[in-house]
Amino acid sequence: MEVKAYMVHAYAMLVKGGRRTIESLPPEYQAPVTEYLAELDNQV
């Protein structure tokens, strides 16, 4: 399955908002979402 950039953003917002956890995401999205969230934290 191909990882889509817009889904990484969508899943990240769900995780950040508490609606999902990293572990509940499809396996292929877990690492990209974690990296995306880390980048967001570094920008603040």
Keywords:
globular; 44 residues; 2 helices; 66% helix; single chain; mainly alpha
Structural commentary:
α1 crosses α2 (27-43). This protein has one domain. The mean pLDDT is 96. The chain is built from 2 helices and no strands. The longest helix is centred in the last third of the chain and has 17 residues, at 27-43. It has 44 residues and is mainly α. This is CD1375 family protein. InterPro entries: CD1375-like (IPR047907).
Give the averaged pLDDT, no decimals. Answer: 96
Query: Care to count the β-strands?
Result: 0
Structural domain count: 1
* Low-pLDDT ranges: none
Note the total helix count: 2
Backbone shape: globular
Structural topology:
Blueprint lengths: L4 H12 L10 H17 L1
Organism: Paenibacillus haidiansis
Protein name: CD1375 family protein
InterPro entries: CD1375-like
Write a brief structural summary.
This protein has helices at 5-16, 27-43. By secondary structure, the protein is mainly α.
